[in-house]
């Protein structure tokens, strides 16, 4: 049996009795009778190991996946009602009608839970993005269609003020290095996937190819966050709409190839 086989089998045995996020390199190493660095080498890192363990646990017991969905749905309600600062895993458990242990099985902290919600939100956005962009490109006037699409994205701030405030609360309150790193990876992943779509548009000659697509994606994201800050500081609908029209028109004219 290879060292890798020993490590994986030991990790699976431990996962039968403990939550995935409570398992350490040292425990797996002791069970596999190898040095802890061998465990790290085969998994790549603590987070990667725990993601692997979580998948194994949920595959073995589908009820765990169902419980996780209930937790995430209740978390959305609790965060919306109490704000990020005043929400807690205990309140989420109460809202979901679950024990505290059931919530802590899936999420080790409030930050961990909120980040999971954010990941789901990003994934939904990315699934819809290709179709949205294709509709823009098929319009008679792509530049105007792009401006309208950008406006529709930014106007979500007006109807989703609570969600926007939650994101800002989370962003400024997170001090856990592991959570910060996860947030950074999620952010880079989002921008990279958007940049892939933008690169394809440049290849098809819909967008100006003189700018780096990742930088364009980062610019969109920075503008969105900047508009969010403006909305928080000056929440007048007429000012928001005027700002969005200006931003959308300027971007549409600047990067769409004229036909």
Would you write up a description of this structure?
This protein has 259 residues and is an all-alpha fold. Helices cover 81% and strands 0% of the residues. It contains 14 helices and no strands. Helix 1 packs across helix 2, helix 5 crosses helix 8 and helix 13 runs antiparallel to helix 14. The radius of gyration is 22 Å and the shape is globular. The N and C termini lie far apart (64 Å). The model has no long low-confidence stretch (mean pLDDT 79).
Outline the secondary-structure elements.
Blueprint: H1 3-15, H2 25-32, H3 36-43, H4 46-60, H5 62-86, H6 89-96, H7 100-106, H8 110-137, H9 142-154, H10 156-159, H11 161-173, H12 177-203, H13 213-233, H14 237-255
Distance between termini? Answer: 64 Å
* Anisotropy-based shape: globular
Classification by helices and strands: mainly alpha
Please mark out the parts with pLDDT under 50 across 5 or more consecutive residues, or reply none: none
Radius of gyration: 22 Å
Give the biggest beta sheet: none
Summed up, the helix count is 14
SSE series: HHHHHHHHHHHHHH
Helix content percent band: over 70%
